[in-house]
Design brief:
alpha/beta, Rossmann fold, 9 helices, 48% helix, globular
């Protein structure tokens, strides 16, 4: 009985250890922000999407969009690529975030949209190539601290142009929390939407989170 229990619990223990190791050995958001201040301005920041249900933005989406606005207003970044397709809902995440971003003050000409990514690794990969093709050479990934930590290794291994990370600072966001923009998101609806839950198995989606569904091309 003990052997059976060990067989099924070991993968979860290993996975938990892996996650804790990621957080243990990654630099803190404050340290990464100080690094960004020394290396600003960035040509573009990549901001990954978050599902939208058609009523209001989630706390995750809100944090990422407000942080993008902050970085641009402070001159730390010149442009932003919002990345994300219609993954779990009919709304194309990048388009919704662009609408919110413009509503709270990001100039429209500074906003670019990558609307195919379904996973965080694809947010980085697709947006990296978009940025590179536009001639941007200083790139950063701006998301929440958890996602940034999980994707830091991926962004360091794969690309010739370095991708810095600027995860948002929770304390800083708290001072900007009283923002409640209203948008018309009809233009962000994918009329041919099919949920990723119906098109991909759990293991296929798990592979996607690790970047295993990407067809990498040489630089």
């Amino acid at each position: 009985m003990q052997r059976i229990q060990l067989k099924y619990t070991t993968p979860y223990i290993v996975f938990a250890f892996f996650l804790s190791s990621c957080f243990l050995f990654r630099p803190s958001p404050h340290k990464l922000f100080k690094h960004a201040l020394r290396n600003e301005p960035y040509d573009v920041i990549i901001v990954p999407g978050s599902p939208y249900d058609g009523t209001q933005w989630s706390s995750v989406m809100k944090g990422r969009v407000i942080w993008a606005n902050y970085l641009i207003k402070k001159g730390i970044a010149k442009n932003v690529i919002f990345s994300g397709g219609a993954v779990y809902t009919p709304y194309v995440e990048a388009k919704v975030m662009a609408l919110f971003g413009e509503k709270i003050g990001i100039p429209k000409e500074k906003i670019f949209i990558e609307d195919r990514a379904q996973h965080g690794t694809e947010n980085i990969y697709n947006s990296y190539w978009m940025a590179k093709n536009m001639g941007f050479t200083k790139i950063a990934f701006a998301s929440d601290p958890v996602q940034s930590t999980l994707l830091m290794g991926f962004s360091k291994r794969r690309f010739k142009i370095k991708i810095d990370h600027i995860p948002f600072i929770i304390d800083s966001l708290a001072t900007m929390d009283d923002i409640y923009p209203v948008i018309n998101a009809d233009s962000a609806i994918n009329k041919n939407f099919i949920s990723i839950v119906e098109t991909q198995t759990f293991w296929h989606r798990f592979r996607g989170t690790r970047g295993k569904n990407i067809k990498f091309k040489k630089e």
